[in-house]
């Protein structure tokens, strides 16, 4: 069952709106011509139990058709709107996928940069150690040269 089928009866929760499916008494309405002087031959929905004095369905067929058309037109507008929303959601979904891919690539680049920094940092530490050893050796040689001259 579609969402539209659920929404329409809520807005028109009236058995006499549009083509009636069932009468208040539970009977299926009949389509009959009118025999009155004011509406001769005009089709209408009525109930076979109408003679019992209770309240029964009565809808002019032409009015019911116009109401049905109005409902269909409104459903069509909702459907178009739903399709537009679905398309917009699809575009957003693709955009999110692109952003996630970019994020993944950035993470990989970040890891690569971290590894590079760690490598460079190790090289720098080694260079500093070698420089320290060289300077210490120079100091020792200079000191020895000074004392044993
Ligand atoms: Zn009835």
How is this structure best described in words?
This protein has 149 residues and is mainly α. The chain contains two helices and three strands. Strands 1-2-3 form a three-stranded antiparallel sheet. The protein is rod-shaped. It starts with a helix and ends with a helix. The structure holds zinc ion (ZN). Zinc ion binds at residues 23-25, 27, 47, 49, 56-57.
Q: What tags apply to this protein structure?
A:
mainly alpha; 3 strands; binds zinc ion; transmembrane helix; membrane; coiled coil; 149 residues; disordered N terminus
Q: Could you give a quick summary of the protein structure above?
A:
Keywords: Coiled coil, Membrane, Transmembrane, Transmembrane helix. The chain is mainly alpha-helical.
Helix content: 55-70%
Q: Please, how many domains? A: 1
Stretches with pLDDT under 50, minimum 5 residues: 1-13
Give the DSSP E fraction (strand runs of 2 or more residues). Answer: 5-15%
User: Which strand order does the major sheet show?
Assistant: 1-2-3
Series of H and E elements: HEEEH
Query: Averaging pLDDT over every residue, what do you get?
Result: 88
Rg computed from alpha carbons, rounded to a whole number of angstroms: 44 Å
Shape: rod-shaped
Count of DSSP E strands?
A: 3
């Amino acid at each position: 069952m579609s969402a539209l089928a659920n929404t329409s009866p809520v807005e028109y929760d009236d058995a006499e709106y549009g083509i009636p499916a069932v009468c208040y008494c539970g009977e299926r309405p009949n389509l009959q011509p009118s025999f009155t002087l004011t509406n001769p031959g005009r089709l209408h929905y009525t109930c076979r139990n109408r003679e019992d004095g209770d309240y029964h369905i009565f809808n002019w067929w032409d009015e019911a058709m116009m109401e049905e058309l109005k409902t269909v037109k409104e459903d069509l507008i909702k459907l178009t709107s739903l399709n537009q929303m679905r398309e917009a959601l699809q575009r957003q979904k693709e955009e999110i996928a692109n952003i996630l891919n970019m994020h993944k690539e950035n993470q990989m680049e970040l890891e690569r940069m971290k590894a590079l920094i760690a490598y460079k940092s190790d090289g720098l530490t080694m260079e500093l150690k070698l420089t320290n050893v060289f300077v210490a050796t120079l100091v020792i040689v200079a000191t020895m040269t000074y004392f044993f001259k």
